[in-house]
Structure formats: C-alpha cells, structure tokens
C-alpha cells in the first residue's frame, strides 16, 4: 500500500516516490520472509475468489499482494499514484498476467473494466470521504464480486486509522454480506507481535 494524498506526497507528508526503494524492507510490505509471505498468501487464498479471475489492487505499492494474487492465477490490475512504486511493481510482476497504472486509487483509471475482486490495503483510513471511495470501488465489481479491505488502527497515544466497527457501518448502505476477520493475533502477517487493531473486511455488495 501507499498512502494517497496531494501531488508528490501522501497524506502523512511522506514522498513515497523517494521512499519506494526502501518500501519493501518492512516485513509486511516486501513479504520477503517466507513465513510472512506464506501467511499473506493463505489469507488471500481465503479472501479472493477460488477460481482465477480479475483482481483490481488499489494503492498497490510495489505489488507484493498483486504478486501473490497473480500466483493464484488471477489477472491483476494494480493502481498507485506514485510512479516509482508502479515501476517496482511492474518489475516485480514482469512476465505475469498483470498491468500497473499510475492513478488515484479513489478514481481508478480502468474505464468500463469489471473485476471479481477489488483489493485495498491500508488506504481507506487516509481518505477524507471513505464512504464515497467505497461506492466508487463497488462500481467496477462484477455481480457477486467482493471488496477485500485490509485496515486497522495504529498507535496508542495518538491512534490513526479506522476501527472495524466504523468500516462495517460505512459498508452497510451498500447492502450484501460483510465479514470481519481480526488479524492482530497472527504475528506471521507482520513479522512481529502487534498490539493494535488490524483486520480485514470481505464484503459482497448487492
């Protein structure tokens, strides 16, 4: 994931183009550790459709989750607003059935293309109008398609993020089914123990 904001920087003021080369050094970004990679692969296997389909990875960063999805036979389209991140994703998935676009995750430049799943990790909490983003992310879904949203609340003194209950409430107007899966206890996902709120929501809107 990369955090989306104004031109040249994320909402946290970080220049993610400048940070792209070091982005994968975090265990849950680069998924270089076999145990961490296997943990995320197992989660994606459960969250994404069982049959190979089309997956839209928004805020894809360097493409680590895209690579796992492609490894399951899915056709992946990744979108990130930072060109250095997109360049690394293209390199990482060279030869795979994947395409990466520079663009805004809240308004993905995919035209009339439709997808079996829209995958978004650690992006929604940064957005000023998350409800609007969710409506836009529903639009490119095929009937029966699913939103896979990985989010959390980080920090204890000045926490940032979006609680699972709030995200479930934001999804309610879209109808359909919503499931919440707690991720904090699974230390393999993060490469360390964590004590904050981390979770995934899989929603199948009406």
What is shown here, in short?
With 206 residues, the chain is of the alpha/beta class. 32% of the residues lie in helices and 26% in strands. It contains 8 helices and 8 strands, in the order H-H-H-E-H-E-H-E-E-H-E-E-H-E-H-E.
Give a verbal description of the structure.
Residues 56-149 form the Methyltransferase type domain. GO terms for molecular function: S-adenosylmethionine-dependent methyltransferase activity. It holds the Pfam family Methyltransf_11. InterPro entries: Methyltransf_11, SAM-dependent_MTases_sf. One of its GO terms (biological process) is methylation. The structure is a single chain. Mean pLDDT is 92; it is low at 1-9. This protein is an alpha/beta fold. The two termini are 27 Å apart. Helix 1 (16-23) runs parallel beside helix 5. Strand 5 and strand 6 form a beta hairpin. 41% of the residues are buried. It has one domain: Rossmann fold (3-Layer(aba) Sandwich). Strands 1, 2, 3, 4, 5, 6, 7 and 8 form an eight-stranded mixed sheet that branches. It has helices spanning 16-23, 27-30, 34-47, 64-71, 83-92, 130-138, 164-171, 187-190; strands at 54-58, 75-80, 98-102, 115-121, 141-154, 160-161, 177-182, 197-204.
């Amino acid at each position: 994931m990369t955090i989306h904001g104004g031109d040249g920087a994320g909402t946290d003021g970080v220049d993610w183009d400048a940070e792209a080369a070091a982005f994968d050094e975090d265990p849950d970004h680069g998924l270089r550790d076999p145990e961490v990679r296997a943990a995320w692969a197992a989660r994606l296997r459960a969250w994404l459709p069982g049959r190979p389909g089309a997956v839209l990875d928004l805020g894809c960063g360097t493409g680590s989750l895209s690579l796992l999805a492609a490894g399951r036979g899915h056709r992946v389209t990744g979108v990130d607003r930072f060109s250095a991140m997109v360049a690394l994703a293209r390199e990482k998935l060279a030869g795979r059935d994947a395409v990466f676009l520079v663009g805004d995750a809240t308004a993905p430049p995919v035209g009339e293309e439709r997808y079996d799943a829209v995958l978004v990790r650690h992006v929604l909490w940064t957005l000023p109008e998350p409800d609007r983003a969710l409506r836009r992310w529903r639009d490119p879904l095929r009937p029966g398609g699913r939103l896979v949203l990985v989010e959390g609340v980080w920090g204890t003194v000045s926490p940032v993020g979006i609680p699972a209950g709030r995200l479930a409430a934001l999804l309610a107007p879209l109808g359909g089914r919503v499931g919440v899966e707690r991720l904090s206890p699974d230390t393999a996902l993060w490469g360390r123990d964590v004590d904050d709120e981390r979770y995934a929501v899989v929603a199948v809107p009406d």
